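Notebook entry, structure prediction.
Reason for the run: the old model in the group folder had no record of what sequence produced it. Starting over properly, with the input documented here first.
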Amino acid sequence: MKQFRISEAAALLGVSDDTVRRWADQGRLHVTRGPNGMQVVDGSDLLPLMEDLAAGSALAEAFPLASASARNRFVGLVIRVQRDGVMAQVDLQAGPFRIVSLMSREAADALGLEPGMLAAASAKATTVSIELPPGADT
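New structure, fully documented this time:
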């Protein structure tokens, strides 16, 4: 899934649908019409806004070293995938949190991970796994 409806984009950014529409009117966010005629936003167009919002997040500023317990899940957008011969580094922006996962290149390729995709990270101790939500295109 590389394009998101206005409501989905708003949920990912942590703002209202009206804010997303206002940002589109102001030229801060590029909105187009999808094949079904609905307004959509490319996932890659959300990345700069997500990073801006994360940098200015009151939660991130108040708790810069906040830790979470096992079995936490973070849903967000893939912001970077670096592949080499055997391994891949996947960065995920989930609200104000940037999650980094190291996995085999084969796993990253099998998931078809690329910037702008919706994904979820689950964390337990020092292990971070990336998975796609049900119904996501691969």
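Summary: The longest strand covers residues 72-83.
The old model has been moved to the deprecated folder.
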